[in-house]
Design a protein that fits this description.
The protein is α+β, with helices and mostly antiparallel strands. It has two domains: 312 residues, 2-methylcitrate dehydratase PrpD; 123 residues, 2-methylcitrate dehydratase PrpD (60s Ribosomal Protein L30, Chain: A). It is 52% helix and 7% strand. The strands form two sheets. A four-stranded mixed beta sheet has the order 4-3-5-6. It has a two-stranded antiparallel ribbon with strand order 1-2. A hairpin with a 6-residue loop joins strand 1 and strand 2. The chain starts with a helix and ends with a helix.
Length: 459
């Protein structure tokens, strides 16, 4: 008897215990849980956060959870929505490049909301081992689904694949067996949402789509808990995930990799608070700037040759009235800031920076062109050419982008990122709490109550 793909994935989730996880995967989970928490705290001061929280309504007496970096308690599903939005709203969350998925965002937002929900109800503490298992396997689900796609993006894959990953993670924290998880996956499939239109427009709705899928994953598990069945053939069915949301796929080739390739170990940090598709161009700009002591005033023009997906995601024109979400996804603008300042940081996206005439003038002289790469999901390699006014020409090819596991940020660098993000929290949080969170996540498998970590994420 042939096992349906979703049953194959479900068995991987249900039957894989913490002790089955390789040490490399455990350490990667600890690292990216920390990274995502920091990004979410920085995102607490982002655009439309207050309005989104206000739209969620009052918290219930039970089944509640806290919003990071805020003095706000919401229904747990609403908190998952808001925290996922905060993680993604600055385009600073980690990414699996081959899958084109930000796999920890939806998974972690739903997982910590579930942990907080249990706390609010006086339930048994959820341990660090349980959280690591949930995040590792949730990321595995999301990324294997993304890696299996052979089609260009139509729907926002970080949200849609993230929903399946978060469903797996919450089901682990609730102790679901096979049939409950299969139903949960079917119920999540019925709620999948998020098109690429929000990305095309540079809309804040892009990050909200991450939130919607975190909320919907929790809702799917709530419904399945009542014994209500979901649809079953949700991946390869005539109206399943690939037929409706993706297109061509090679799922049968990827499924045997479950339990052999741990996708969390392939996740890349984002060193810069901008779309990952800008990072290769920024990497090349900073490489040439440093190697040649290049001043932005020397530059006549810049040409970047990029894969079609990179062009689609960030090859947009620069304008004089860009809002912050659009600017983070505009490679011309981000590259100009890198060439001028020698870095890309949160302050590069203030309204003053977005209206800076020197930046905008240089950005107009940066051209983003599609190369001949046939892979519709490739973000690299990137080839950059700079021509200076004195006639000199500079050239760089970036095959592996900074932040990737094969070109990683150092521990010192990603801890600096976390501490800087910590200080950007909307509500001030103490330095002692920051160091306590780092210490707890460094030893996460030994933590007995992960709700204690959330205590330090709120004032």
């Amino acid at each position: 008897m042939t096992i349906d793909a979703i049953e194959h994935i479900t068995r991987h989730v249900v039957e894989t215990g913490f002790d089955d996880l390789p040490q490399e995967a455990i350490e990667a989970s600890q690292k990216f849980i920390l990274d995502s928490i920091g990004v979410g705290l920085a995102g607490s001061g982002g655009p439309w956060v207050t309005e989104l929280i206000n739209a969620m309504g009052a918290a219930p007496a039970q089944d509640s959870a806290r919003v990071w970096g805020q003095d706000k308690v919401l229904d747990a599903r609403a908190a998952a929505l808001c925290n996922a939005y905060q993680i993604h709203n600055a385009e600073y969350d980690c990414v699996h490049e081959q899958a084109v998925v930000h796999p920890v965002t939806v998974v972690l937002a739903a997982s910590l909301a579930e942990i907080d929900r249990v706390r609010s109800n006086g339930g048994d503490a959820i341990s660090g081992r349980q959280l690591v298992r949930a995040v590792t396997l949730g990321v595995d689900v999301a990324c294997h689904l993304g890696v299996s796609s052979a089609s260009p993006l139509k729907f926002f894959r970080p949200g849609t694949c993230g929903a399946f990953g978060a469903t797996a993670a919450v089901s682990i924290l609730r102790g679901f067996e096979t049939e409950q998880l299969i139903s949960s996956f079917g119920l999540a499939h019925a709620q999948l949402c998020g098109t690429m239109q929000a990305h095309t427009e540079g809309s804040p709705l892009l990050a909200m789509q991450m939130g919607f899928n975190a909320r919907n994953a929790m809702t799917a598990c709530d419904i399945a808990l009542q014994g209500i069945p979901g649809t079953r053939h949700i991946l390869e069915g005539p109206f399943g995930f690939y037929a409706l949301f993706e297109g061509q796929h090679h799922l049968n080739d990827v499924l045997p990799q479950l339990g052999n390739i741990w996708r969390i170990t392939e996740v890349a940090h984002k060193p810069f608070p901008s779309g990952r598709a800008t990072h290769g161009i920024v990497d090349a700009c900073l490489t040439l700037r440093k190697a040649h002591s290049l001043a932005h005033s020397d530059i006549r023009n810049v040409v970047a040759h990029v894969p079609s997906l990179t062009h689609h995601l960030v090859g947009r024109p620069v304008t004089h009235d860009m809002d912050i979400n659009y600017a983070r996804l505009c490679a011309r603008f981000v590259a100009a800031r890198a060439l001028i300042t020698g870095e890309v940081i949160g302050d590069d996206f203030t309204i003053e920076a977005r209206r800076d005439p020197v930046t905008l003038e240089l950005a107009q002289r940066i051209d983003i062109q599609i190369d001949e790469n046939p892979d519709p999901n490739a973000l690299s390699p990137i080839e950059l050419h700079i021509e200076n006014y004195d006639g000199t020409r500079l050239h760089s090819v970036i095959d592996i982008v900074y932040g990737h596991p094969d070109k990683p940020m150092s521990r010192e660098a990603w801890l600096d990122k976390f501490r800087n993000n910590w200080r950007r929290s909307l509500a001030p949080l103490s330095d002692n709490a920051c160091e306590r969170v780092i210490e707890r996540l460094d030893s996460l498998p030994a933590v007995t109550n992960t709700a204690d970590i959330i205590d330090d994420l709120v004032p």
